[in-house]
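FIELD: query
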Amino acid sequence: MITQGVRKRDGVISLAQDTDRSKTVPPSPAHTALNPSLSVWRFPDFRMLLTGRFLIGMANNMQVVAIGWQIWSLTNSALALGMVGLCGFLPYFAAALFAGHLIDRFERQRILTLCYIAHAVAGAGLLLIVIMASPAWQLYLIYPAVGLNALARAFIMPSYQALTPNLVPRESLAKAIALASSVMHVTVACGPALGGVILALGDVMIRPFFYGIMSNQSALGFGNMIVFLVAALMQVAAVWTAAAIKTRSRGNLNRGLTWPLLFSGIYFIRVRRVLLSAIALDLFAVLLGGATALMPIYADQILQVGPLGLGVMRSAPAIGSLAVGLYLARRPLGNRAGLIMLWAVAGFGAATIVFGLSETLWLSLLALVIMGGTDIISVYVRQNMIQLGTPDDMRGRVGAVSGIFVSTSNEIGEFESGVAAHAFGVVPSVVIGGIGTILCAAIWRLYFRELADVNLTRDGQEKLVQDGIAASALVQEKMAKAY
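FIELD: result
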């Protein structure tokens, strides 16, 4: 069992973790030397957390492909595709700050379990919509199911960020973050591909067994039914993994909900200007450069590759992310990590422009792979900065605020892409977004020089920890005045 505590050494207060060695079986030296990125896998609760994250990620990404292709088939509307992003953002935004407060007050493992249950309920709802609803009603029923998934994610992301530092020692945290990011991007790679294969082959392989039995079919036939069935089963299995985590992690917050406490995560990030700059950069870069909502249009009209090609396209960014994430797990960034992050964001914008202009599948896939590889660098640096630079008793609230920015960049980015494509056309909207992303990286380099100076060496990590403790003290002082 791993417990969180505070130690004072040489006059410096730092968070520390005590590991019960009797319940942890360390790997052999040879295994650790050959697989340094997997050394954190020896912690059983961290294994369960990653397993649940894999199952939920696979299920969600399979559903994303099926939902996007079905809505496009029902409506042929870029705006309707963008509405999926809006329905994913609004519940998340409404619940995120409350989620951070609850995560810092109550047991995080139980909150994660309840969130997985909500995902399973939404997954079962999508399955029932395909089986029972007529095509005329499906569009109006899918949007609420997307909203329920988003509501659960408002709690899941800060739960991950708050739990992970309590499941591994601090010296292994960077590798744990890189491995967790790699697992997430495996799901983003495999989930859409599996969903696309099922969509493409579902009618051919499944329809003969159900012909004449089911009258309410989806616009895509029986492929969607199998996608949502498999996804719902994965979400049910994820509930068990969360319930199996034995480490009981909860914040030290023991006050009832008040407005100052609700917004304390925002105040913490405002005090930590370097964190604010990293989170805001990711927000604007993905908001402008996100073209994922338009992939069904590219697959259908521009590249003409159908649902199977759509699944491959949705998987391509994750292949780049996975490759770079595994590299970072073995060789974590040290010096000049912040500057590398800025160059990665600029590369993301350039790859977005190439994707927007491409009319051949291989070039589009290459651009998407590069987009994924550069994006994971930004995620890796930002997550290290947040998790190292946030004291444990504030990780839920700070993680919730970070989640709002991430959700804004993803879901509102999809909505913005749909609106821009509806107004200006698909290709111009993607190219303009890529140019805007490059400009963001240049502006941040000029006006947020402290971000370029961030490093993740041992000394740099200690500085992040101490700066976080100092910022937390300022927040506590503000809270005391408010009371």
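FIELD: remark
The CA atoms of residues 102 and 438 lie 37 Å apart.
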